[in-house]
Design goal:
about 160 residues; OB fold (Dihydrolipoamide Acetyltransferase, E2P); cytochrome c-type biogenesis
C-alpha cells in the first residue's frame, strides 16, 4: 500500500466512524424530541394516543375547573378547535383563562390531553414564537399586537 492509499483509508475510516456515531446520537434523540401543535393541528394530524407533543394556544375562558389534590381541568383553544386538558400539579403564577399557554404531554384514549408540564406566557407582552406563528397562520393574529408590544420575544428561556 502506498502512502496515499493509507492516508485515504484512514480518512475514509474516520468518516465512517463519525457517520456511525452521528447516526447513533440522532437515533437516541428521536424519542426525546417533542413537537409543537395547536388543537387544530392535533385534530388534523390525528395524533395517536400516547405520543408526546406540545400543545399550545389560549386557555378557553370559563373552562378552568380545579379538583382535589392539585388536579386541574381546562381547555386550550386556537380559534378553530378546542382540546380538553387534564393536569395534576402546581400551575405557573401567570396561568389564567384567556392567556397563552403551552402544555407538554400526550392524548389519552378518550381524546383528553394529559399534561405533565404547563408553561404560561412570560409576561403581558410575551407570546411563545410557535403560538404566535400558529395564530398568524390561522388568521387569528391581530395587527395591533405589534403596536402593543406583544410580538414574539426572541428570548425562549421559559420554554424547554
Amino acid at each position: 500500500m502506498t502512502r496515499r492509499q493509507r492516508r485515504l483509508t484512514m480518512i475514509g475510516g474516520s468518516l465512517l466512524v463519525l457517520a456511525i456515531a452521528a447516526a447513533l446520537v440522532l437515533n437516541a434523540m428521536r424519542d426525546s424530541i417533542v413537537f409543537f401543535s395547536t388543537p387544530t393541528m392535533a385534530a388534523e394530524k390525528q395524533i395517536p394516543p400516547g405520543k408526546r407533543f406540545r400543545l399550545g394556544g389560549l386557555v378557553q375562558p370559563g373552562s378552568l375547573m380545579r379538583g382535589d389534590n392539585l388536579a386541574v381541568n381546562f381547555s386550550i383553544a386556537d380559534g378553530s378547535a378546542t382540546l380538553p386538558v387534564a393536569y395534576k400539579g402546581i400551575l405557573p403564577d401567570l396561568f389564567r383563562e384567556g392567556q397563552g399557554v403551552v402544555a407538554e404531554g400526550a392524548l389519552d384514549a378518550s381524546g383528553v390531553f394529559k399534561a405533565d408540564t404547563v408553561l404560561a406566557k412570560h409576561d403581558e407582552t410575551y407570546m411563545p414564537k410557535d403560538v404566535a406563528d400558529a395564530l398568524k397562520k390561522q388568521g387569528h393574529w391581530k395587527d395591533d399586537y405589534a403596536k402593543q408590544g406583544v410580538a414574539p420575544s426572541p428570548v425562549q428561556g421559559t420554554l424547554k
